[in-house]
Write a structure and sequence with these properties.
2 domains; mainly alpha; 0% strand; EboA_dom
């Protein structure tokens, strides 16, 4: 399916979702704005509607059932609007309504939105990257979004979004991962994480762990997911250090990394912790469970 078809299908899909969860007056306003934006092809019309959307839609979470989530995946692999709010969804519908026939005009208009948007607007703009047209020409824009210190904006690019794994080169991907670790974001929400693991990233994260340990601080347990495929004798010493810590979550992460490693010496560590090994093999302990537990510790602290 072409990117343009994805854009059209995603727009219709999002309108249908919103129509069951928003006031009828709000939907009437949205549909009239979409029609005017599409017919006029004037950037100012989009800018005004984009700003006014907050008067018609709130930031409550968009609700999706299982079938609706599967339909999103069918439209665009990795498309995950279950993490979106209603205002964000309405703004995305407005963006997708802007004509795409004139590529130059489309980019000029989008660039103005990206360069002038507030935090909530940028969240909408970046999260919709996988359903825009001209996706192969938006890589620099996506990387720009990762340079922000605004967590909402960083998350819109990095989490629940297939765009980075599909379009970032290794350098950009690794920089995104390192910043996500530094910001202690939930890494299990980064799509296609295992497919994009690489030796350089493992080395970068090991160096990061050493720096944190030298400063007397721990590292987030999910970090070891990206080291697991590249465990060797040297890196097993770091695993041993984690296993000797008093933090059960870190131990679980280190042993899960051993479980996923093809390095025989790493596998041998598992037998020393039969209870954790049993839960790992049963799927009770996985990167998502570890990430969620770690997020809870951040809230408590």
């Amino acid at each position: 399916m072409s990117a343009h078809n994805v854009t059209e299908q995603a727009k219709d899909y999002l309108i249908e979702l919103l129509s069951h969860q928003a006031e009828s007056d709000s939907m009437n306003w949205l549909k009239s704005q979409c029609k005017e934006i599409n017919n006029s092809a004037k950037a100012m019309k989009l800018f005004l509607a984009f700003g006014k959307a907050s008067k018609y839609f709130d930031k409550s979470t968009l609700r999706l059932n299982h079938a609706q989530a599967k339909e999103a995946e069918k439209i665009r692999k990795g498309f995950t609007p279950s993490a979106w709010d209603k205002l964000q969804t309405a703004r995305t519908v407005l963006i997708l309504s802007f004509p795409q026939q004139d590529e130059g005009l489309w980019f000029k208009t989008m660039n103005q939105l990206f360069e002038t948007g507030d935090m909530q607007e940028l969240k909408s703009l970046y999260a919709a990257l996988p359903i825009y047209p001209f996706q192969d020409k938006l890589t620099d824009r996506a990387i720009e979004g990762l340079r922000t210190n605004m967590t909402l904006v960083f998350d819109a690019v990095a989490l629940d979004n297939p765009y980075p794994s599909e379009y970032f080169d290794e350098r950009a991907w690794n920089q995104m991962l390192l910043k996500a670790v530094f910001m202690q974001r939930p890494l299990f929400l980064i799509q296609n994480a295992d497919q994009r693991s690489n030796e350089n990233l493992a080395s970068i994260l090991i160096d990061f762990a050493h720096e944190k340990w030298a400063a007397g601080r721990n590292v987030m347990p999910e970090l070891w997911r990206y080291v697991a495929p590249f465990l060797d004798d040297s890196r097993l010493k770091d695993i041993e250090k984690v296993l000797n810590s008093a933090d059960m979550l870190e131990k679980q992460a280190a042993l899960l990394a051993c479980h996923q490693s093809s390095f025989p010496k790493a596998k041998a560590y598992l037998s020393k912790y039969p209870a954790i090994q049993k839960d790992i093999e049963a799927g009770i302990i996985n990167w998502e469970s570890i990430g969620k537990s770690f997020a809870e510790t951040l809230i408590k602290n």
